[in-house]
Amino acid sequence: MANNAPGKAHRKGIGLRKLMVMFPSDDQARMWLESQIWPNGPYCPHCGSFNVQCGIKHKTMTHRCRDCPKRPQFSLKTGTIMQASNLGYQTWTIAIYLLTTNLKGVAAMKLHRDLEISYTSAWHLAHRLRAAFGNRETSMFRGPAETDEAYFGGKRKNMSKAKRKDFEGRGPVGKAPVVGVKDRATGKIAACHVRKRMPKPYKSLCERLWSRARRSTPMRQRHIKV
């Protein structure tokens, strides 16, 4: 049966040439970010009021709230992952494009070379974007979920003798236990590291993850124990 779906080279999206046309300068990138963050106009990130003063005389701040008691100053970066960052808006938009279009992610060293910024700035930029991508408010679990556990850690034969002596026993000794929940309908996965071993860590943690999933989604599925 012929596959009529577009190949990898024909997928719809924004290429590098179109990206440079969209964001040729910092001002163009700022205008696009304003349309995404402030679709209904600028508002105060502290109280949410739209009664704000625009175009104030400040080096970094652009607006002032008229309803807050202290009338704080703020900008487009205030209350976002760009807060307290000296990087330009064009740099942020290009970094967002690189991290969202690359299938295997982008290393901080590559961002350092491509964006022509310091490695420290590139590392913090990538860290903030990954944290923002992970904190999605959309529902994760929709159908039946399955749980499983795994142990992560280096092989004992590759450790030094001094470190190998600290681990007595076999199997998961010296490794970090991780428990995850997977939704069969959406394929989404939620996992967390069990920092402290408990008499029944797997059961208690699974119940905690399950209760978190039920609270975060409007799911009315029957809990089936397997």
Mean pLDDT: 79
Q: For the report, how would you describe the main beta sheet? A: 3 strands, antiparallel
What Rg do the Cα atoms give? 24 Å
Coarse structural class: alpha+beta
Q: What fraction of the residues are assigned to beta strands by DSSP? A: 5-15%
Q: How would the blueprint of this fold be written?
A:
Elements (H helix, E strand, L loop, with lengths): L15 H7 L3 H12 L14 E3 L8 E3 L7 E2 L14 H13 L6 H7 L4 H16 L10 E8 L8 H4 L11 E8 L5 E5 L7 H16 L10
Antiparallel strand pairs: 1-2, 2-3, 4-5, 5-6
Helix pairs in contact: 2-3, 3-5, 4-5
Task: Describe the protein in words.
With 226 residues, the protein is of the alpha+beta class. It has a domain at 145-215. Helix content is 33%, strand content 13%. The chain has 7 helices and 6 strands; from the N terminus they run ααβββαααβαββα. The chain has helices at residues 16-22, 26-37, 89-101, 108-114, 119-134, 161-164, 201-216, and strands at residues 52-54, 63-65, 73-74, 145-152, 176-183, 189-193. A hairpin with a 7-residue loop joins strand 2 (63-65) and strand 3. Helix 2 crosses helix 3, helix 3 (89-101) crosses helix 5 (119-134) and helix 4 (108-114) packs across helix 5. The radius of gyration is 24 Å and the shape is elongated.
